[in-house]
Amino acid sequence: MRSLTRKVWQRTDVAVLAACLTAGAVLLALPASWKEALGRSVVATVFAPLEKPLAQLRSLAASRTENKALRQELSWVSLENASLRQAAAENSALRELLVLKGRWQWSLAAAEVSARQPGIFAPDLVVDKGTADGLRPGMVVISTMGLVGRLSGAEGRASFVQTVFHPDLRVSAIDTRSRVLGIIKHQAGKGMVMDRVPLHSDVRPGDTLVSSGYGGVMPYGLMLGTVEAARPDPLKLRVDVGVRPSLDLNRLSQVLVITGGAPPPLPSLAAPDTLAPKPRPKRSAAAAPRPDSLPAPELPDSASQTGGAAPATSPPPPSSPEAGP
What we know:
By secondary structure, this protein is an alpha+beta fold. The chain has a domain at 106-273: Beta Barrel (Thrombin, subunit H).
């Protein structure tokens, strides 16, 4: 008998089935009130601890779904916000271009930058206007930040701009404060510099540099930058001037091309402080009169009647010792 029982319990499935049948028979034999109490005890003991983790899992799944939807909505809102900001920036740039267009007596054609090399010192740009819009190589390109460059080539619906950062572009510049002339160019490794500035020239950091117009290519008055450093070089008999350019290609999207019109007059090379009239020094009351302001000496009547010269008189002859009294 014991061996039979041991064999039965060794088979797990049979043991489980027997336990379930025994428990079922016991539950059927219990009263209804006991069954209800037992059911509540089983639920409170077995299923209640599992309810909280299950609720947390359901909440986590719902939060994950909601988070995904919110992220997608945030992406759309961010794209829309970026588009609105871009439109506002373009609107502001166009307004500034309109103000700039009304400031000069030039014929201007608006164009948009369609391509450029990466970097803040890109030597070339491409704009979306060309020969079909009246553009020709050699025309000057400007923006609200100042001089951009000039057209190096033009096709039907596109033009190529040689910027102020191109190593082959030279611009005649003038210091608006001291009227010192120089040549603006961009050197690899040094950035923008002002060349051909004589030694002992009055160039200081912070001075504003604009195009002088004396080169015959760029008109006068276009902003180029500010002096960043000025170092005299006695060996080369010049001043090495470092320039901070006013053109920022990262903010450039709209340009104006000068297609015609009269250029402004060339600037004066005299410093502004030398053009103002200097006050005359006040004369002191105790100052001696000038020789030409002295009164003429008074002449006797006879001299005035004879033309101003007194008659010559000869001295009396000496008395002879031989003459008596």
